[in-house]
Amino acid sequence: MAEIELEEVWRCTTCGKCVEQCPRDVRQIDDVVALRRLATNYGVSSALLKPVRSASASLSAEGNPFVQERSGRADWAEGLGVKSFTEEMELLYFSCCLPSYDARLKFVAQAVAEILNKAQISFGILGIEESCCGESIRKTGHEELFKRLARQNIKTFIEHGVKKILVTSPHCYHTFKNEYPEYKVNFEVVHITQYLDQLLQQGRLKPVGEYPKRVVYHDPCYLGRHNGIYDEPRRVLSSIPGLELLEMSEAREQSLCCGMGGGRIWIDTKMNERFSNLRVQEAVDLGAEVLVTACPYCITALEDSRLGLGYEEALQVKDITEILREVL
């Protein structure tokens, strides 16, 4: 097991870029996760994995990886008129752990709720009955914990009559859409960028204000490469009056990972090794005023790099929903 203790096994972010480019169709992500699963089953110990063990314990106890009480999961929605989900509602909004608990990401969940209210969408949340989708912990090799979380959520969804799930996180999207069907269920799963694109095309949302800024879009790996959603977020941004949309040199299928996937969100990456530094630097070099994305993991990484590189005044990092809310 000595080889599995090497840091290299844990460096992969499961971004999918190697899979995309491999001429022999080697499934590198499956191989890496299998090695991690083997290490987990054998109880391999490493200082690198201490935060993963902490996240695992919190997921088991409270349904989230942040050692936060389950009772606070819906606190982000206070004062917004958000209701508990009932079977008669059009959709369930599954906010994800980060927007539920993180002080910065709560603004994203709130933006989603305000936009849905503006469009007069009948939606609700499950609040304390939600548990983490389990995507990231599965990528660290904790397969049994993933199964428990998945079964908890599936049971809750079925009991509440959930048919359509709206998600903010591409990681939730990927898991509900592509991995939960392993348990013989198929919910309709929609990412917020897809849904906003539909609402704009249907005329249920109409931007009335201008956003006169230069904006560059970062493709999240689990939205783009893993699930092929590239055009919808760009159409949403292009619909906003005054917004000038720029593109990174590595975009769409070639987009560079932010560095937070594959369970790396819980493992500290040295500042000089962060992929997100490259994305922030390129955004600044392009003359962008706002670096926008559609993933809570990406926002976390990009915000850290923005501050770490000293670009507090030169650049803002925003979720696509935060920009759209400003012009409605």
Account of the 3D structure:
By secondary structure, this protein is an alpha/beta fold. It has a domain at 207-327: 3-Layer(aba) Sandwich (Rossmann fold). The protein contains 13 helices and nine strands. It has helices at 17-21, 28-41, 50-62, 97-101, 106-118, 135-139, 143-159, 170-179, 192-202, 231-238, 275-285, 296-308, 320-327; strands spanning 83-84, 91-94, 123-125, 164-167, 188-191, 214-217, 244-247, 290-293, 316-319. The strands form two sheets. It has a five-stranded parallel beta sheet with strand order 1-3-2-4-5. Strands 7-6-8-9 form a four-stranded parallel beta sheet, with helices on both faces. The mean pLDDT is 93.
Question: How would you sum up this structure in a few lines?
Answer:
With 328 residues, the chain is α/β, with parallel strands linked by helices.
Topology:
Elements: H1 17-21, H2 28-41, H3 50-62, E1 83-84, E2 91-94, H4 97-101, H5 106-118, E3 123-125, H6 135-139, H7 143-159, E4 164-167, H8 170-179, E5 188-191, H9 192-202, E6 214-217, H10 231-238, E7 244-247, H11 275-285, E8 290-293, H12 296-308, E9 316-319, H13 320-327
Which key terms come to mind for this protein?
alpha/beta; five-stranded parallel β-sheet; 328 residues; single chain; Rossmann fold
Morphology:
globular
What is the CATH class of one domain? Alpha Beta
User: How far apart, in Å, are the first and last alpha carbons?
Assistant: 56 Å
Radius of gyration: 19 Å
